[in-house]
Amino acid sequence: QVFGSMQKEGLQVTILSTCPVADYKTQESTLTLASPFLKALKTKEFQEQVCCPLLEQPNIVRDLPAAVLSYCQVWQIPAVLYQCYTDVIKLDTVTIEAFKPLLSSKVLKSLVKDASESTKMLKKFLTTTESHNNIYI
């Protein structure tokens, strides 16, 4: 339904998602991983450089982020998913700041007026939405 009213030509999709570090599959112990960290998954049509390492097998993405990325792959829409693996349940500034490298990406760069104020703004958003555990921007 989200894509039903959008024109698919010239569209490029960026998906931001978080999940627990415990869901990350690796040979090493997840206790030794520096959390939070980003991994990316992209459609075949996405030609831009990704801002972090690609997600390795056998890791999977679930729920709405997976559905959106799958839709984009089927309809040949350039899309990238940035998955943040974090060790906290409630969204916090440390987790949000893991997404900061994405602000320099071609698509998101035009949305940012002043990256130096981003930490201050993130803290403000978290304080005002703390009781709902969601951020609405």
Automatic annotation (TrEMBL):
Entry protein name: Proteasome assembly chaperone 1
Alphabetized InterPro entries for the sequence: Proteasome_assmbl_chp_1 (IPR016565)
GO molecular function, one term: proteasome binding
Family matches, as Pfam families: PAC1 (PF16094)
Organism: Manacus vitellinus (golden-collared manakin)
GO cellular component, one term: endoplasmic reticulum
Entry keywords, A to Z: Chaperone, Proteasome
A biological-process GO annotation: proteasome core complex assembly
UniProt similarity note: Belongs to the PSMG1 family.
